[in-house]
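Exercise 3.2. Students should predict the tertiary structure of the chain below and write it as structure tokens, then compare their answer with the key that follows.

Predict this chain's 3D structure.
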Amino acid sequence: MSSPHAIPRHVPLAHPLAMPALVLGAFAIGASPIFVRWSEIGPVATAFHRMLWALPPLWLWMRWEMAAGRRPRLRPGDAWALTLAGLFFVGDLIFWHWSIGHTSVANATLFANFAPIVVALGAWALFGQRITSRFLAGMCLAFAGAAILLAASSGFGGGRLLGDAYGLVTACFFGAYMLAIAGLRARLPTAFVMFWSSLVTCLGLLAASLIAGERLWPSSWAGLWVLVALAVVSQAAGQGLLAFALGHLPAGLSSLVVLLEPVAAALLGWLLLGEMLGPWEGLGAMVILAGIVLARRGATSLTK
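Answer key:
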């Protein structure tokens, strides 16, 4: 553990549960492509339900936080920041769900989690964070593992290029979302940030669904439960844990550890959708994890 003066003033001391919350959140979010594949309605409408059914538990969580004395102290501009975070997540979900429909679950999740590049550049430009050489080496190792996974899937032909491209656009929106949430979580309670930004996202996705002409409701109870599970597991729990962790860890480290998501997605895609993992895919996942461990050791030295 580094001394307090080695940590940027805008990054709080690490909470003992921050790293477990980040890992659990990454795996919960990594399960979301499975629910999207099982959905009976279109990708944008599915994203709308993801936010709609997550709002009640997020509202209850926010009320519990306020009852426990963690009331937000809003500043001028916070409403705009929450709105912007919600709109970034609109773009993230739309392009990610499109990506899931055009490429493998593992690829869609992997490309979406190229967000560390966006976050690292944004943290440097906006917050003045400097990345140590060990952290940079860990990031490079993690992306080397990502390259192995991509090379292993290249034999499927060019039909997946559109889905991969959508995944890269997702990464840009997700990186911007993470930076916005990290800035808000430095001062505001987790549930407050999650509820209000999610409400903005829900309204934005409703408008996008209507514009796209997608059917808003599934045709069976099973289809409805798939959407509720997507909302509770991947949005309320997954994004909630991620937002909590972002309030206690450097943004660059948090975004890198979220590369665990494609590992979870690949395993679930293999078990539940029959998208087989070969030896090269397994090697790529191991290299990613090694990079995360290395970056974790170097992240405590982030200085301003």
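Discussion points: The CA atoms of residues 112 and 167 lie 5 Å apart. Residues 22-299 form one domain.
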